[in-house]
Amino acid sequence: MHKDEEIRLDNLSKIEGHGSLDIKIEGDKVKYARLAITESKRFYTEAIRGKFALSLPLMTSRICGTCSIAHLTCCSEAVENAIGYTPSDQTRLLRKLSMYGMMIRDHSLHLFLFCLPDLFNKDSVLDFDESQNELIRRAFAIKSAGNNMSKVIAGRAVHATYAEVGRFSHIPAKEDVKKVIDELKSVRGYALDFIDLFYNSTFKLEHDTKFAALATKDYSFIGGDVVDGDGYHIAENRYRDYLENVVIPYSEAMGYDFEGKEFLTGALARMNINKANLHADTQKDVSKFMSVFPSKNVYHNNLAQAIEIVHCIDHSVELLEANEFKAEQNAPIVMKAGEGIGLIEAPRGLLYYMVSIDGTGKVKYGNIIVPTQQNQIGMEKSIIQLVQENMDKDRKQMEYEIEKLIRAYDPCMSCASHFLKINWK
Asked: Theoretical Cys-Cys bridge with 270: which of 193, 213, 384, 414, CB 3.0 to 4.6 Å?
């Protein structure tokens, strides 16, 4: 590239939502990279005020069209913690399974429709030739299995209808559960083959950063403490104390540091921190791929997601075969004043909810912090590193490499653009 260069990408492709990027190069030095989330603010943290808390999860799940079940689950947990309600074991199990279905579907969307073309040097799956038709068929079969599991467990794959605060309004029928098990088993081999594809990818950017993820005993995305890359444990109700707001004046979303440092949350962080708790069957069949973790290669986020798909299949099959779901009488919900925290692992990383409820059951205020906000500063710094390390490439090549790197982070711009605070400059 020329020694003085300005790169502007107005529409980053194959990511969730809309973003843009400005890069300034002076001499042989990258002066800055400004990754802007350009989705319009939707003011969710203001819109929830005065709403009845029991209706809040269905409302906030509309923040995202792909990981709505994550928002639904996390918000329900926050409301339950605020009023001191403990859901039944069966409700917790159904939540775990609904999260697994979402992870299979969401990871499949990202890996097979957004990232897979990069492995074959294609712009889109629509550019694949006839020899790759079977590969695409298998990709959609995996995604469909996640969709169908979410429908049976939660009512819908997107904007689920059965999950509520404290309970599930519908219990899956035995014959539907059997169909889900059979479908999950039928696509497991396909999912293993895709792990091999992402493992053999030569894409590499070693970015030195902190990691943060929930460490759960069964790698289930719900429960446990937050653990950082140094092994330090943080209770979920104290996680916000470790985050620092960072105003990003050119972006619609606020960023976050972890104890004053950039950090990464998501599948790569989970695999680095919690790989020992993957399902036993998964560990047995993916053992050759696990040696790369812990990893600082940003592109290994894709590999980690591919492994997580197999784990979600294996643990779902075990839980579905071992449990029989029955209609139950849940304890009545009694509204009272309180403040509650919800913290789970969404597909893209740690998702945080805080709600404050008054004595009538209405929301006084709340806060929502999504994974893309937590990763935004790290994305910018890794882009600077990528450009700095590839100054010999022409502009077109560089733009492609930048988009490929951003896709590896799997950002969700839609989720990140709901904050009320506006900073004019």
From this structure: 213
